[in-house]
Structures are given as C-alpha cells and as structure tokens.
C-alpha cells in the first residue's frame, strides 16, 4: 500500500497483534476486517480491499465513523485510529444497527496506548442509538448505507464467471499456487508435499441431526456465527458442545484474525496454546482427510498430534472437514482457558472436559479431559479419566480426581514455557470448576448430589460485558467567559479528523526520497562479551546490500560523555547487553537490509554478566551518583515507636509499546555537511546535538523536523538520538537519503522501558497507624548504561513521601548497573515506583495494626495549610485533601467496603478487595535548566497565523492547546491558526516534551509571543477600533512596517535539590488527586475485574482522556504487563504475542472520572495542571485491592500473616498467592512466592 501512496493503514507490529493495519476485505458479501500485515497480496486475487482512505477524507466528505471517533476525542496520537475506524466501518457494512456487544467484538483486535478506549467506544456507541456524553448529535453526519462503496463491478463479473483455473505467482524467492478446485489442490499437494498450505474463506459445510460439519477452510468467524445459530435452534442440552466452543471463540484472537484464520489451520498448527483442539477432542469430533488415494476419517484426539507443530497427517493429505457432534442428554461439556489477558491472548493453559453419566444417576459412564499448554502437544489424562469411571460425582470423586491429576499433569521445573507450578495448579483448578458446574447442572436435573455450600458455586458466574459505559464528569468553563474564547473548552484535537481519515502523516508515511536506502541494525546476541571479530562479507553479497557500518565508519565521535559516563554509538571492543548495536547494514530496501543483517557473523569471548537487581546489590554494581534524602532523626525515632516493621516491595518494568515504532529519515543536502532529519523524537534538540557530535559538524547544519509521534511516553527521548546518528552516518557515507524503521521486536529489544525497582524498608509506627519513622532504600535496575536512570531515581526519592507527613524519613537511591538493555524514561519517570513503595508501607502498617488502610492513610496525610515536603519544598495540601474526601464520597467508599466484606463472607472462590490512595505529584523538571519553553509566532498579510514551538505533539494535544492560547490572545478563530511542525531551525535548544510540563512551557511561550504582537498592533487597533483583524494586519500594520513575527520565551522557575542538605524546590508545582478501585478476583485462576472512581485536578477534553489513558497504562503496569528475560539475558517478550498491554476487554466496566471544581493553579498557563503522568500511579489501587482480595482468600485457608506479592499482580501471581488444597498438591510454598520470573 505504501507503493500506492496509501499510508493511512499503519504498520504497528507485523504479527496481527495491534490492529493498526486493519483494512476491509470483501469477496462481495459479507465484508470482513483483516490485518493487512498478515495478508499476502497474491492471496487477494478476486477480492476488494478498502483502506481508510477509501471511505472518506477531509478533502471530500468524512464517513460518520471518522467524524464520530474524532468528535468523541477518540484519537490522540492517532496512529491506531485508522485501524479502529476500519474495524467499526466493516461492522457497519455488515450490521448497520449494531449492538454494544457487536462493537466490543469488532474492536477486540485493536489496541490503543493513549486513550484508555472509552472515548473510542463512546463515539461508536452512537451507532447503537446511545447518545454520547462527549458531543451533541446535532449536525452529525447520519449513517447512510446507500452511500457506501459498491463492490467493484469487474470483480463481480469475475465471480460470476467462476474460477479460471490454477493461478501461479512467481517471486524471486517464493512460488505461490492458487488451485482451481479440490482435485487440483490434491495434485499440487502430491507434487509439493513440503509446501505450506495457506487457506482462505470457503462456505460452511452443513448441519445435520448428528451435529455440524465445517469445511476445514471455514474461518473461525464463520464457525462462530454458525454455532450461534445452532445454539439458538437447539435445546440447551443438545448444544452444550457448541456453547463451550462459543465461549472459547469469544476469547480466541481478535476479530481480524478470526475472520482470516480457519478452523483447519487452527487444528493443523498443532500448537497447544491454540484453544480449539482441547474442546474438540473432548467432544469426540472427527476429521475427514483426503488425498489422491481417497478419503479417511480419523478421530480428533491426542493420537492425531505427533508433537509440537506436527500431526500424523500424511504428506499428500489435506484436511477436508471437521464434524462436531451434538450433545446428548446426560452429557456435560465445558472449555476453560487462562491467559495473560482475558481476550486476544494465547492461553497459558486451556482445557476441554466432557463427562457422560448413566441416565438418571450421578454415576460416571465416561470421562474425557484434554489439556493444552501442559506439554508439547495435546495432553489426554487417560489414567485419571479411566480411574473415575463408575464413581459417583461427589466429594470422593473430586479428591481422587485431584490426586490422580496432580500426578499425571506434574511438570518438571525445567519444562518448556516456564510457569510450571502455575500451569499444574490451573489444570487442577479447571477440573474443580468443571466439577462444580456439573454439580450445579445435576442439581437442576434433580439428581442427588452431596450438599455443598452455596459460596462454592460463586465461581460459575461468567459474563462478557462491553466496558466503558459510565460517564465521566467534565469541568465546565466560567459562565462569563466569551463563547469565542476556546481556552478550557473540550475542543477536538486539531488533527483528529486527519488522523481518522489517514491523512495525518507520520515519519514513515513520508514519500521515499529519490535514491533512498534503508538501514537495519545488527545487535549483540551476548549479554557481556569481548568482540573478537565481525564478518560482514556474506551480508554484502545479499542482492541490494550497499554497505556495512561500524564504529570505524563514524566521521565524528563514536563515543560521547553523558554525565561522566561514556556511551557508545556502536560497540567497539565489548558488548554489555543483548540488543546492543554493534553495526548496521544499508541496503536498497528494508527487506534486503534485514536479510543482509542476519548474515553478519560476530565472534565473541563471553564474560560474566550481571542481570538481576539482587545480583547487582551482591556485587555492589552501581552507577554514580548515589542519592540520599533525609528529614528528622530517623534512628532516634525508631526508639520511640510502638512497633517496627521491615519488608520489601518489588515492582517490575514496563515496555512503552507506543503504536509507532522508533525511526527516522536522514536526508543529506549535499552542501556544507547539511542534513535534514524527519524523526520521531520527543527531544529534537538533543537528537540534533547527538547527530552533530557523531558526524563532526556543528548543530546549525543539522535540522530536525517532527510533525507528530505515534505515541512516546518518554521512550522517544534518548534512544532515538542514537538511531538518528546511525542513520545520519549511513547517509553521510553513501550520500543518499536513509530510512530507519525499527521492527516491533527490535524496538522492544533495543530501546527497553520502565525501570524495575526494589524497595527495602524499615518503618516505625504507633498502634493507631501513625508512622513516626521510615528508612527506605530504593534499588533500580538501570541496565548497561546510565541513560536517564539517575534522574529517574531522583524523582522516585522526591516522591517517597507521597501525601504523607512522616516526620522522620530517610531514603537512599542506588541505580544498579547490569547487563540488560538500558532502561529509560517512561511516563511518570520514577514517580510511580517511588510512590508505590510508600503506599506498600502504608498498606502493611494498616494490616499490622488491624486497621482499615484508608484510616491509616488519612491519619498520616499532610493537613497543615502550609506544609513542607521531605525535601523542604513548601506546598498547600488543601486540594489533595479535597480530592481524597470527594473521592471517598463519590465512590461511596464506606458502603462499598461493607459490601466487599459481605461478598467475601458469602463467596469461597471469588474474593473482592477495595483500595483508595491520595496523590501528590511534582510537575516540571527538578533540573531547573529544562524548565523553559520557546515559540515563534508569524502573522501573514492575509491575517493567518503560523505558530512554531519547541514541543512535540504525541497525542497529548499540545498543538491544540497552543492554538487555543494563541486564539485567546490574538482574538482570532482557531481556524486561522496553523501549526506546521516542530523544527530545530525555527525554535532552537528546546527542552524535551516530558514531565507533564510541555504544555505549561510551550503555552507560556506562545502567550508571550502573542502578547508581544498584540502590543505592537495595539496603536493600530486603537486608531481603527471598528476594523477587522485582516484590516489591521494588511492595511496598516504591514504598511507601517510593524514586525508581524515574534519569538516567545518562558523562563520557568529555578528548581534544584541540594542532595547534601536534603532540601530544595524540586518542582514547579504539584498536581493532586485520589483514586478508589474495587477488584474481584477468581481465586482458582487469578482472573480479575475492576471498578474505579478517580478524582483529579485538570481540564476538560483532551486532558480528561490523558487521565483515563494514564490510568489504563497504570492498569497494565500493575496487573498485566510483564517483561521476561531468558537465563542468558535475552528479552523474551518482543512483540504483542508475548507482551500484553490492556485491551478493550481489560477496561473497568465502571470508570468514573471527576475533575476537581474550582481548583486554581496560579503557577501554570491559565490555571492548567499537568495530568499526563500522575494518573499512571493510580493503577496501584488495583494492585493493593488485589492484595486485599488475596488476603481474604488466604484467610479461608487459615493464613492470616503477611505475604509477599510483587508487581505486576499477574494472573499467575494472584492464583499462586491464593493458597488452597490445589496449590498444596503441587508442593508450593506460598510465603516466598514472587512469580515465575526472577525479578530484574
């Protein structure tokens, strides 16, 4: 599509895991959404493909889908927006009046990292006839299906004529056949037995009295649709198998993949993580196989699979069809799965179970249990099943089943895939769930079974609900504010419509420059080793390869000092982590560059690595400086307290997973060493500086252009500068433009993410929960180079008090030097880590005192009108206390806590917890020189205004706010103001867009420039008060030679900390908030769901979605997202298949956001408040609520003491911490559990 200049369809991951590349595929009817990155072009013969450009544009007419997602503020960075639009558009083509469940299913395969999903659904639910809380429907384009694109007539004629025989497409490396019919397929299969078979959609087979038969090439969506129809037609007893399959299909992949993937492909993949085989095997399904020699029918069971990825299908055979039988009256069937994320994720363990009873009794006649994820292939627990035949379905059977299962499914600690204890326990938990479901159904049939407590049956309830239905509350502007004044109003993101139509351009959307090359990085495969040699001769033999780059090709400096630490562009003599860049291949295309890079051979001499934080502590491997803050006399205070508690809290890292991967285009200008960079960076000035240093030229010859970013979150500050320098070196060496676009896996490997933290503490407190002393040592894993780790540690220390006045408080901060890719800035910048440790302390103190946690938080909270932080910065906590009180009130906290206690008393296998926390978050940079902003405002003779500033638009709406400010000062409509790009040639030496300070700094600078212009125009305006803006500018100002261009500058406050004295005004101001979350966990699987009330200072519109988007990112940080490394230091989670961010299914069904009314902030532009980073921390309320729920579950097993739980609280950690008889059967010691992955 890039060749056709259709750049609206985005490349986000290349594996169908993000939905950014969604298009609509049609073979007349029906239409289906599909992942363009997974569709070979040759497979589309006879199909129509519609991209986002094909349904509407700002130049012609928007489609209602595009209009409504934009008006609902559902597009922030905008990179995911075209994919969202196409998923919804496809749904409407098939169902013009969809239900909320239809929308939920349609968007399952689309990820968003910015919005938190609610505004997207809020815009789309208007197609269900449900009004939006965010915009009025007056004037909104109606949905008119008659205006949609028709199926191309030439393709219609092709379909009517029928197949034209076999097709063959010949490429340079691959030959593709499209057979004419089944007999032709069998001929090809016999001739090419080792060739993979790729299938597309065919028609569903036929329904018969015995069941349903599906052609093997039926898509999973077609199977789901047919089964839904069968369930509607049949009695519940006859459709139990179909219902179990539907429950599985709801969670299986995303809608786009289900539309393309086939039931035959799912089975023949022979991957135990694919969920269908277990339930199909348990249901006694059969397969029809066909070859030139004839057909044969085989049962789908464990004997069909030969191993991982292998079946006993003969080389010349193909799978023709699958038969799924109906259920019989005394037959009970269920399917189970547990994954990292509820939907759109491979299962960790899945199971299919069927029991048949002798008619009218609870005596087991036959039993089938199959597991996936418990070995390399499908596992049938034959001994267990045979041992239970003839037994009554009662507690005795349960005990015997668990004993047999524990022996039969036991996994050795070294089993592939890890999580061995968790997987074994899940297999027992699944059977217990099945047992309880069958008990309930037998009771309904009136069959006598042993009495069971009602609270044991609570696990049977299960729901699939569309989330994000509850309104947020918007802070309105003053009634006296002019209707023409846009400041403070929830304006649509100024680029939202272009983002919704695919017209908005990102760096990789820019057309190729003539002669453009592509660069691909060669990275280390060793964590710590000497480089003995590099052989790139084979790489340069690859067709299209141009040159190889290494340290010797750098024209300037390969090394640079970063706060007294040396950082290398290319590793020269020694590598310090897997993923460190040691070279790069330049080629004519990205595919050629990638193939060539794979042929570079590097010889190493391995050295001893240090990976984990605890190892670094043992080896005293730390970066300098080591930081310390102290208030009061901690040691003396420990002698005056009632109790002392010691403990630790580990918090894992997080991948940025911005939707647009890092990259740039470097264009040499061929004169005086000039070079233009079109780059995705949050800090253009730093990129300019690093590139100039690398090339050995002055910064004035390097110009960085930044139009917008497809997400940043702090990850596009440091690492992109090095990538830019490498691309610039390639452009310098070849004299041609060079494009660099990291693949998702390489982006995750090279750029790393949020720092893991370990906090060790000693706290002294009174019996009423008042904390008098706390001594905390923070350890962060900095990785192999310093990067921004010292700044991040400083922010953690500066936030270690949160909103609590602890009179004697001491904190040490040490950054561990390890042999992992360097961790870097991430939204919150160390704040969430520092805050979480102190909240963990408050949580443990409350538990130790036997008091509600909110009471302990309240008794320790700052309350004096003039308070001082532990670093002696004055502030007023009034708004923080207001947020706290209003949060408790609006969440009905007291009543909900009582309801949680009642729920826990009446439910054994589901437990709830509730948690509320306050927040005090510093805004701005503690390094005072960064607190500055600059802007350039030009007025043209036609009255139009061009604003340039040093900030970067990455979805936070900085451009929208800059235009609003200029509109207010100049008195012109927003439509007359334009922002072209961020450019170092227009605004030099700009600070990074980070620390929630970009809008404050840029806004003040724009205001300053506009005020200068208005002061110049003031005499003209006074002389001609009745003239219009254009007349003032054109007729008089220009003719009077009044300058219509002005620079604006904001010199922020001088912030700094004297670390020796433990004092200093570290921040410009503080943002306050509070959050309450309630969580329900499934004690048997670790699954959970949440409800949230959040109170924050802020403004409406884009800022509101910054709050929700930040919270959802925090939800991922504290409950889902987990970085995993191999024993040799290689990142295992290198894409959306392994690393899961929150999807639509993970969003709380109730998420109420309230913005604090009448909260003033005299320090910032028009009382704005930085709220981009703080809400991430509120995800910790989920973590502590989960911990409360786990504690309730542990009390059922007689465990009342403290227990360790590290963040994130994944399904594995939740399940393993809920100690019960099933965990004990797997010989698990819960008191020391920290998860299957060693903390890094």
UniProtKB/TrEMBL annotation:
Q: Which SUPFAM superfamilies match?
A: 2Fe-2S ferredoxin-like, CO dehydrogenase flavoprotein C-terminal domain-like, CO dehydrogenase ISP C-domain like, CO dehydrogenase molybdoprotein N-domain-like, FAD-binding/transporter-associated domain-like, Molybdenum cofactor-binding domain
Q: Where is the active site?
A: 1173 (proton acceptor)
What are the entry keywords?
2Fe-2S, FAD, Flavoprotein, Iron, Iron-sulfur, Metal-binding, Molybdenum, Oxidoreductase
Q: Which coenzyme or cofactor does it need?
A: [2Fe-2S] cluster; FAD; Mo-molybdopterin
Binding site residues for [2Fe-2S] cluster 2 = 77, 80, 112, 114
**What InterPro entries does this protein's entry cite?**
2Fe-2S-bd (IPR002888), 2Fe-2S-bd_dom_sf (IPR036884), 2Fe-2S_ferredoxin-like_sf (IPR036010), 2Fe2S_fd_BS (IPR006058), Ald_Oxase/Xan_DH_a/b (IPR000674), Ald_Oxase/Xan_DH_a/b_sf (IPR036856), Ald_Oxase/xanthine_DH-like (IPR016208), AldOxase/xan_DH_MoCoBD1 (IPR008274)
Mind listing the GO molecular function terms for this protein?
2 iron, 2 sulfur cluster binding; FAD binding; iron ion binding; oxidoreductase activity
Could you say which residues bind FAD here? 197-204, 275, 319, 337
Which residues are noted in the entry as [2Fe-2S] cluster 1-binding? 13, 18, 21, 37
Record: residues binding substrate: 829
Q: Which residues form the FAD-binding PCMH-type domain?
A: 181-329
Name of one Pfam family that matches: MoCoBD_1
Q: Which PANTHER family match?
A: XANTHINE DEHYDROGENASE
Q: Which family does it belong to?
A: Belongs to the xanthine dehydrogenase family.
| Descriptive protein name | Aldehyde oxidase 5
Q: Which organism is it from?
A: Scleropages formosus (Asian bonytongue)
Underlying gene = aox5
